[in-house]
Amino acid sequence: GSSLLTGPEGLMAKERENLKRLKCLRRYRQRYGVEALLHRQLRERRMLATDGAAQQAHTTRSSQRCLAFVDDVRCSNPSLPMTRHCLTHICQDANQTLFKPCQGSEEVPCDKPVPVSLAEEPCCPLHLRLPPQLYVPEQGLPGPQELETAPAELYLSAAELQPSENLPLEFSD
């Protein structure tokens, strides 16, 4: 609005009225004097309070370690977000419902935590049971040695592969 001609020769009455409204709207919610000073101080205090709280939450969160003890020594791994245990010891938390220990097999027991999925018994990749094989190869197909011993009369000569009739070629313009 400051680049507009503001003299009486530059604007018509309607344009002057619009310019006056624009200037009023620009000043509508601005604070002046003591009110502006107090508002700026309040904003600075809020920024310091929220930045301090965010910084404190970040340092507290990143410094938390797993609460599990292995052979009377506390685990040094960082805990998972929103929990008190690391991924290795998450199954020790009785309140969590996202992980279950792998059932393993009879020969190789396993207690590795795995995420709960739609499967009834979630397993780690080592103990994952594959579905039954859908494709079963047929037993009646000949092997490579059987193809080599095929009789020679099954093969056609080069003369037999040539067409026996000459068909006229028709060109259409």
From TrEMBL:
Protein's name according to its UniProt entry: KAT8 regulatory NSL complex subunit 2
Domain of life: Eukaryota
Cell compartments where the protein resides: Mitochondrion; Nucleus
Role summary: Non-catalytic component of the NSL histone acetyltransferase complex, a multiprotein complex that mediates histone H4 acetylation at 'Lys-5'- and 'Lys-8' (H4K5ac and H4K8ac) at transcription start sites and promotes transcription initiation. Required for NSL complex stability and for transcription of intraciliary transport genes in both ciliated and non-ciliated cells by regulating histone H4 acetylation at 'Lys-5'- and 'Lys-12' (H4K5ac and H4K12ac). This is necessary for cilium assembly in ciliated cells and for organization of the microtubule cytoskeleton in non-ciliated cells.
A single cellular component GO annotation: NSL complex
Description of how the protein assembles with itself and partners: Component of the NSL complex at least composed of KAT8/MOF, KANSL1, KANSL2, KANSL3, MCRS1, PHF20, OGT1/OGT, WDR5 and HCFC1.
Domain KANL2-like probable zinc-finger, residue spans: 72-127
GO biological process: chromatin organization
PANTHER family documented for this protein: KAT8 REGULATORY NSL COMPLEX SUBUNIT 2
Keywords: Chromatin regulator, Isopeptide bond, Mitochondrion, Nucleus, Phosphoprotein, Ubl conjugation
